Amino acid sequence: MTISGAWRRTARGAGLLAADGTVAASIFAEMSALAVRTGAVNLGQGFPDEDGPAVVLEAARQAISDGVNQYPPGRGQPVLLEAIARHQQRFYDLPVDPGSEILVTAGATEALAATILALIEPGDEVVTFEPFYDAYGGLIGLGGGIHRTVPLRAPDFQPDLDALRAVVTDRTRLIIVNDPHNPTGTVFPRHTLELIVELAHRHDALIVTDEVYEHLTFGAPHIPIATLPGAWERTITISSGGKTFSLTGWKVGWLSAPAAIVTAILAVKQFLTYVNAAPFQPAIAVGLDLPDSYFAHLASGMMHKRDVLAAGLRAAGFAISVPQGSYFIVADATPLGFSDGAELCRQLPALVGVVAVPITAFCSPAHRAEYAPLLRFAYCKKEALLDQASSQLAALSRPWARE
Ligand SMILES: *Cc1c(COP(=O)(O)O)cnc(C)c1O
């Protein structure tokens, strides 16, 4: 066995490499390439097509001019740590110590990576809901963990609570909760979050919450699990400046947790990126201190976009589940006569000039079949683009026009 053969086998063991040594086929890359090649409207990838607040952009330019360009402190710049603490207090009444209970990361992705790698041993079980954000599967594999899932099923994508009770056991080390949820747009009610806390206590598990869509809920305000009784001591709360300020390319995220847990995660994070985004950190701090009206407009604007695309998808003949949060809407292609969402996604650019991704991209191989006819469309786009996509999608409801 050559050395290269050995490392390939290792990466393949974590599901990251295909048998031929290429990066395991990502439907996201395939669909984005298809969008570029065909000029189709790309509602596949979840990034906004308008940049965040001008004052935040200006603060980053200013920071560069002011010479904030070298390695920041390992936990993050104090100005950002303090702004994060103020944000948790203002929106959630959650007191967090900026000096010891917060860690700034390279996006929510690095927060997830450092958390999972720091807190699991090979063979530990990690519970997520399914469909799941694709990074969870990859990171659990890198940590040598065993991934267990609780299904979220159409039309409301709420978990069956008995199924949740059955999956969490004494072997469970982490329960990862993404609320509001990507890709389904579902928001968990308080009693589900309370059950998660109860199960974590009973089985001595830790809770990791991916709250990157915390400011993108369209009904009841977001409930961070860490605010529930008995939860803070065993919860790692993760957020993303990319999602909250429409600045996904800046990759500024953070987590908060009890000091000892933050220290354990910092021990891993120092050897991942060490630190990141020096001039963007004070800019995100400016964003976090924006008035309540910024956050309210972000949500109401996104809710309007949701409604525009929902109407377009309904008119095209999809059965849709109206999301209560996030950037995404799930559409069922069954009423249109399609049973294979991945195949439909490959045809959609030629049929109607629109790109989406199949929900099966967020599922483990064993569970793909039950999600096969579902597609995810992103609505974090300009209204004119959503209107254009809607009118193009309408051709799907006129099969004679599909040629
Ligand atoms: C976008 C996203 C992330 C990654 O956030 P970054 O800050 O870009 O790393 C993590 N989790 C979910 C559910 C997301 O949608």
Automatic annotation (TrEMBL):
CC cofactor: pyridoxal 5'-phosphate
Pfam families recorded: Aminotran_1_2
Keyword Membrane: no
GO CC annotation terms, alphabetical: cytoplasm
Record's keyword terms, sorted: Aminotransferase, Pyridoxal phosphate, Transferase
GO molecular function: kynurenine-oxoglutarate transaminase activity; pyridoxal phosphate binding
Domain of life: Bacteria
Domain Aminotransferase class I/classII large: 41-385
Family: Belongs to the class-I pyridoxal-phosphate-dependent aminotransferase family.
Protein's name according to its UniProt entry: Aminotransferase class I/II-fold pyridoxal phosphate-dependent enzyme
